[in-house]
Design goal:
Keywords: Calcium, Cell adhesion, Cell membrane, Cleavage on pair of basic residues, Glycoprotein, Membrane, Metal-binding, Phosphoprotein, Repeat, Signal, Transmembrane, Transmembrane helix. One of its GO terms (molecular function) is cadherin binding. With about 800 residues, the protein is mostly beta strands. Among the domains are: about 90 residues, Sandwich (Immunoglobulin-like), CATH 2.60.40; about 100 residues, Sandwich (Immunoglobulin-like); about 100 residues, Sandwich (Immunoglobulin-like); about 100 residues, Cadherins (Immunoglobulin-like, Sandwich); about 110 residues, Cadherins (Immunoglobulin-like). Helices cover about 10% and strands about 30% of the residues. It has 7 helices and 40 strands. The strands form 11 sheets. Strands 33, 35, 38, 39 and 40 form a 5-stranded mixed sheet that branches. A 4-stranded mixed sheet has the order 1-3-6-5, with no helix packed on it. It has a 4-stranded mixed sheet with strand order 2-8-7-4, with no helix packed on it. A hairpin with a 5-residue loop joins strand 5 and strand 6. The termini are far apart.
């Protein structure tokens, strides 16, 4: 009730005091206001003669947000001039929230809010009101629209929507250095009162930082804040509405501020002297120790560069920076020797790579420390007196000859004896031997410089006290040459001389070569042999530079008289013992023109007419070769023809069986075969040419007893058989030569004249009549001859 009365009082002051602006005057319809409550008068119809009292028309109500009372919150009242209080007028409400948020008393027109309202959710509601006659249900007045505004209260605290914040600022920054700007947002109505007026302040983080209460800009409040002292700061910022007055709502956020590093600190060694112990056997380039300078800065501001200050022992060592740990790594540049020097001392300087000019006044950004290195004695292998031994030996030196020696010593305290041996991997052929105690090297085989001019092998020395400690050295042995080969002409020369050459003309420059390894300054000398020096056609001129020239001694040479000259040249070397050789040079006489250009050196050119060109000579030779080829081919064909095995000669004495189909001729037909050739021994002796064609045999239908008196034929067959056996010209293939009767198994017996009787009178041709009609003519022919035989008649 207290809240409701206060609200009514406030509205009364506003309406009565004229703080609200009237919308429009109504000439006939007026809205009257009740003195202590919100009332909207609806216009009604009046008589034209009735005097109308003018009033103000209000179109909005106010309702307080977040109302928490037990009764519905009274908003206002609707009233029509036509309402006489008799209960005949009904008030209706429509629009935003009608019935759900706002209700109206249909009789009195009172409007209430039935639920709590939030201005931040909905700041106002638009509704429509109307007066209706209860009985007729007809509107008494037109519908009137009005607004109910939600009155804001300070119910929202400021909020930092972007918090928490992260910011950085360089260390050693001056007072007032900008860090960050924060901003808080208040959801209350900024146009009504101070509910949305925000003021900033620092609750935690002083005295290091400050904030502007209106803008929210954070700045440094102390000078020379050192990151190495404190790096992280957490500042609590408060934003309060109502202008920071008592009762205002507040919101907070956290700002994490980090001081970034600047190079404001030089590197410093934690101690002034570093002691290191290094074995003398440490290899070159190995790390022998580490030192470190401390720089409290961070990142590239803490990068340190180390350098060795020139001085005692500094040239034996080097120092580099480890990028990850920023330590100085000391490395060995040269080998250490305990027996030579046992300790080294030098200084190391550490300095920053990236300097900040703002802090130069603080002093030099570098520091110096002393490094003392003690060399530790290590049991080391023997040391040879030389890194490489070079020796020389003459070839063919007797086996066992000492050619040199190597020396190795144990330099450790309490030195041990040394033993020597040859590395078999480098001298697998064992050309040399070494004395294990003395180190002398001797030959083990005869050496030949022309086979191998240089030997390279290794010798190993080991300590007697510790054989595992060994060292190795290379031995280079050069085999010296012994003058055992005479010099010779370096290349074969094709020397020519023109027929029109003049005396004293140099026709060839010759040089010599020696298979021996010639020492520096060796000279070759050239001269003619004594037998050629008597009336020589040519001579040798020694140029004294290991070359010589062949010089003519005659005025012209003739190829017809002598085409080739042989010139013996003696060549001597200058080594000991002197070696010499006689080299014969061949000099050919050629035809040249007047300028000395060679025209021809061929032998055939001597006999050809003068002026015949080289092309013509080649053509003539080609024709001769073609003619010779034709003759050879002809002779070969003739020989092949004689060896032909086919029976093409008409003088062949063997049986020729002639096949024919005509009837007639009989034994009077002697054109195909001459039986007299078989009977004549002379003919048999003259025809000994072999023919390897087997004659065809013809079987006759009638069998006759063989003739026993045929000794000449048998002798002929045996003779031919013997000739075939001993004939060297027989073909290299198997052949069958038949010289016998033409068969005894035929019914007709043989028709050959070989089996015939020796005389025609002994022939009996009666069997021809038994052969049938085909042989009737032949039977009649021979039968007539037999009937007229005079011997038979007699």
């Amino acid at each position: 009730m207290l809240t409701r009365n206060c609200l009514s009082l406030l509205l009364w002051v506003l309406f009565d005091g004229g703080l609200l602006t009237p919308l429009q005057p109504q000439p006939q319809q007026t809205l009257a206001t009740e003195p202590r409550e919100n009332v909207i008068h609806l216009p009604g119809q009046r008589s034209h003669f009735q005097r109308v009292k003018r009033g103000w028309v209000w179109n909005q109500f106010f309702v307080l947000e977040e109302y928490m009372g037990s009764e519905p919150q009274y908003v206002g009242k609707l009233h029509s001039d036509l309402d006489k209080g008799e209960g005949t007028v009904k008030y209706t409400l429509s629009g935003d929230g009608a019935g759900t948020v706002f209700t109206i008393d249909e009789t009195t027109g009172d409007i209430h809010a039935i639920r709590s309202l939030d201005r931040e959710e909905k700041p106002f509601y638009t509704l429509r009101a109307q007066a209706v006659d209860i009985e007729t249900r007809k509107p008494l007045e037109p519908e009137s629209e009005f607004i109910i505004k939600v009155q804001d209260i300070n119910d929202n605290e400021p909020k930092f929507l972007d918090g928490p914040y992260v910011a950085t600022v360089p260390e050693m920054s001056p007072v007032g250095a900008y860090v960050l700007q924060v901003k808080a947002t208040d959801a209350d109505d900024p146009t009504y009162g101070n509910s949305a007026r925000v003021v900033y302040s620092i609750l935690q983080g002083q005295p290091y930082f400050s904030i502007d209460p209106k803008t929210g800009v954070i700045r440094t409040a102390l000078p020379n804040m050192d990151r190495e002292v404190k790096e992280q700061y957490q500042v609590l910022i408060q934003a309060k509405d109502m202008g920071g007055q008592l009762g205002g709502l507040a919101g907070t956020t956290i700002v994490n501020i980090t001081l970034t590093d600047v190079n404001d600190n030089p590197p410093r060694f934690p101690k002034s002297i570093f002691h290191l112990k290094v074995p003398e056997s440490s290899p070159i380039g190995s790390a022998i120790g580490r030192i470190r300078a401390v720089d409290p800065d961070f990142g590239q501001n803490a990068e340190i560069e180390y350098n060795i200050v020139p001085g005692d022992g500094g040239n034996l060592f080097d120092i580099v920076t480890d990028e990850e740990t920023q330590e100085g790594v000391i490395k060995l540049k040269k080998p250490l020797d305990f027996e030579t020097k046992k300790a080294y001392t030098f200084k190391v300087e550490a300095s920053n790579l990236h300097l900040d000019h703002r802090f130069h006044s603080a002093g030099p950004f570098k520091d110096t420390a002393t490094v003392k290195i003690s060399v530790l004695d290590v049991d080391e292998p023997p040391v040879f007196s030389k890194p490489l031994y070079t020796m020389e030996v003459y070839e063919d030196t007797p086996v066992g000859t000492i050619i040199g020696a190597v020396t190795a010593q144990d330099l450790d305290v309490g030195s041990s004896a040394v033993r020597y041996f040859i590395d078999w991997k480098s001298d697998g052929d064992s050309y040399f031997t070494i004395d294990g105690n003395e180190g002398t090297i001797a030959t083990n085989e005869l050496l030949d410089r022309e086979s191998t001019a240089q030997y390279n092998f290794s010798i190993i020395a080991s300590k007697v006290s510790n054989p595992l400690l060994t060292s190795k050295v290379n031995i280079l042995i050069n085999v010296l040459d012994v003058n055992e080969f005479p010099p010779e002409i370096s290349v074969p020369y094709e020397t020519t001389v023109c027929e029109n050459a003049k005396p004293g003309q140099i026709i060839q420059i010759v040089s010599a070569a020696d298979r021996d390894l010639s020492p520096a300054g060796q000279q070759f000398s050239f001269r003619l042999s004594p037998e050629a020096a008597i009336k020589p056609n040519f001579t040798v001129r020694d140029f004294r530079n290991n070359t010589a020239g062949i010089e003519t001694r005659r005025n012209g040479y003739s190829r017809r008289q002598q085409e080739l000259y042989f010139l013996p040249v003696i060549i001597e070397d200058s080594s000991y013992p002197v070696q010499s050789s006689t080299n014969t040079m061949t000099i050919r006489v050629c035809r040249c023109d007047s300028d000395g250009t060679i025209l021809s050196c061929n032998v055939e050119a001597i006999f050809l007419p003068v002026g015949l060109s080289t092309g013509a000579l080649i053509a003539i030779l080609l024709c001769i070769v073609i003619l010779l080829a034709i003759v050879v081919l002809y002779v070969a064909l003739r020989r092949q023809k004689k060896k032909d095995t086919l029976m093409t000669s008409k003088e062949d004495i063997r049986d020729n069986v002639i096949h024919y189909d005509d009837e007639g001729g009989g034994e009077e037909d002697t054109q195909a075969f001459d039986i007299g050739a078989l009977r004549n021994p002379k003919v048999i002796e003259e025809n000994k040419i072999r023919r390897d064609i087997k004659p065809d045999s013809l079987c006759l239908p009638r069998q006759r007893p063989p003739v026993e008196d045929n000794t000449d034929i048998r002798d002929f067959i045996h003779q031919r058989l013997q000739e075939n056996d001993v004939d060297p010209t027989a073909p290299p293939y198997d052949s069958l030569a038949t010289y016998a009767y033409e068969g005894t198994g035929s019914v007709a017996e043989s028709l050959s004249s070989i089996d015939s009787l020796t005389t025609e009178a002994d022939q009996d041709y009666d069997y021809l009549t038994d052969w049938g009609p085909r042989f009737k003519v032949l039977a009649d022919m021979f039968g007539e001859e037999e009937s007229y035989n005079p011997d038979k008649v007699a």
